[in-house]
Amino acid sequence: MTGLILKLGPHERVLINGAVIENGDRRSRLAIMTPNANILRLRDAIHPEQVNTPVRRVCYIAQLVLSGDADPAEARLQLLRGIEQLSQVLTDPDSRAKLAAATTAVIEDQHYQALRALRMLLPREERLLAAARGTAAC
Predict the structure, then answer these.
(1) By CB distance 3.0 to 4.6 Å, which of 62, 66, 119, 137 could disulfide with 38?
(2) What is the pLDDT of residues 39-63, one digit of tens each?
(3) Which residues touch 19 (CB under 8 Å, ≥6 apart)?
């Protein structure tokens, strides 16, 4: 079997091609067979008031494409610029690999994969920002 497998908890919600789908009372698995379907777990969604860091801003743009709230062609340039700006700061090999994966995904119109790669940078960004706050407090 090919495609994306979603494992959903009870009453978990997911956005698929603009439609919010809620799971029933039991855990379930959904196989998404349509290639390039726009999918977003709502538990993973970044809310507008949470868009307060550089990585979150770029993630949010990808999320808007997945939710159908942004045109992919218009978002492409914003995503690529945002990734380029992040690459100026996140210079370690692991971050570079994730940014390269996100860039490739955006170029190939694979916005879910781009969001996935970018979300992996959130913990690193949080550590860097916490360290900067700690240094500023001294």
Answers:
(1) 66
(2) 888 988 999 999 999 999 999 999 9
(3) none
pTM for this prediction: 0.85
Q: pLDDT tens-digit profile of 94-128? A: 999 999 999 999 999 999 899 999 999 999 999 98
**First CA to last CA distance, the chain:** 56
The distance of Cα 51 from the centroid of its chain, to the nearest Å, equals 12
Please check whether residue 105 is in contact with residue 114, taking contact to mean a CB–CB distance below 8 angstroms: yes
Helix (H, G, I), strand (E, B) or coil at 69: coil
Tokens of 53: 């860091």
Strand partners, 5: 31
Cβ(98)–Cβ(114) below 8 Å: no
For 32, the 3-state DSSP assignment is strand
Does residue 45 contact residue 51 with C-beta atoms inside 8 Å? no
Question: What is the C-alpha separation between 104 and 110, in angstroms, rounded?
Answer: 8
